[in-house]
Amino acid sequence: MRLGEIMSRAQHELVTTAAAFADGGEWRREGATSAAHWIAEHLDVAVATAREWIRVGRALRSFPIFDEAFASRRLSYAKVRILT
């Protein structure tokens, strides 16, 4: 498997998991003010980055064609961010 394929699959998994995590509310039980804040703290990224992951993951639910294209590496994360 090529590096690009691994990266694309990982990015797709990241944004879809971040959206599911945000919607699940587990972060509330740990006292976080938002899912983005919980993700930022635990993954050592900026809150804005975590918010973007959640936003893109949620948006992909409304755009199954983009979701499938991203999952299969026909669209990059950079392009998906713009399209959603």
Structural domains: how many: 1
> How many helices does DSSP assign?
6
Q: N-to-C terminal Cα separation, in Å?
A: 27 Å
Uncertain segments of ≥5 residues (pLDDT<50)? none
Order of helices and strands: HHHHHH
Shape: globular
Quickly give the structural class.
Answer: mainly alpha
What does this structure look like?
The chain has six helices and no strands. The protein is an all-alpha fold and 84 residues long. The chain has one domain. It is 79% helix and 0% strand. It is globular.
In short:
With 84 residues, the chain is mostly helical. It has one domain.
Please specify the SSE layout and strand pairing.
Elements: H1 3-24, H2 26-29, H3 35-43, H4 47-62, H5 64-71, H6 77-83
Helix pairs in contact: 1-4, 3-4
Which features characterize this protein?
single chain; 84 residues; globular; mainly alpha
